[in-house]
Amino acid sequence: MAQYSAQLDGVFVALADPTRRAVVRRLGRGPMSVGDLASEFPMTLPSFMKHVRTLESNGLIRTVKSGRVRTCVLRRERLAVVDDWLAEQRRIWEERTDRLEQFVTGEDNS
Q1: How far apart are CA 7 and CA 13, in angstroms?
Q2: What is the 3-state secondary structure (H, E, C) of the chain?
Q3: Domain ranges of the chain
Q4: At what angle do helices 45-57 and 18-27 cross, to 10 degrees?
Q5: Cβ atoms of residues 56 and 20 within 8 Å
Q6: Are 24 and 58 in contact, with CB atoms under 8 Å apart?
């Protein structure tokens, strides 16, 4: 089950930081070089690279180096892990509230 996987844990850890979420949001508009991405954040390049490495090690982005330019690309398919987990949680809670509603109203749908 995906909810207990190390993949899901890693994605949530990576997305827990506001800088990394902003990078993911920005890359949602298209690939961008690390230098251009870093210029949008008030931190040094080495500090920014730690965020890039965290996102990359958890599979949320991939980087491609061409000459001296490293470009970041969002891996949208990796976000499906979070989407699947949220859909499962939504289903569980909808079933629980449906049972509570049936209990409170005395309706029996079985």
Answers
A1: 10
A2: CHHHCHHHHHHHHHHCCHHHHHHHHHHCCCCEEHHHHHCCCCCCHHHHHHHHHHHHHCCCEEEEEECCEEEEEECHHHHHHHHHHHHHHHHHHHHHHHHHHHHHHCCCCC
A3: 1-105
A4: 70
A5: no
A6: no
> 1-105 is classed in which CATH architecture?
Orthogonal Bundle (1.10)
Looking at the whole model, is its pTM more than 0.85?
no
* Positive or negative torsion for Cα 59, 85, 37, 42: negative
Nearest CA among 55, 47, 50, 49 for reference residue 11: 55
98 C-beta neighbours (distance < 10 Å), count: 11
pLDDT, one tens digit for every residue, the chain (110 residues)? 544 588 899 999 999 999 999 999 999 999 999 999 999 999 999 999 999 999 999 999 999 999 999 999 999 999 999 999 999 999 999 999 999 999 999 876 65
> Looking at the chain, how many residues does it have?
110
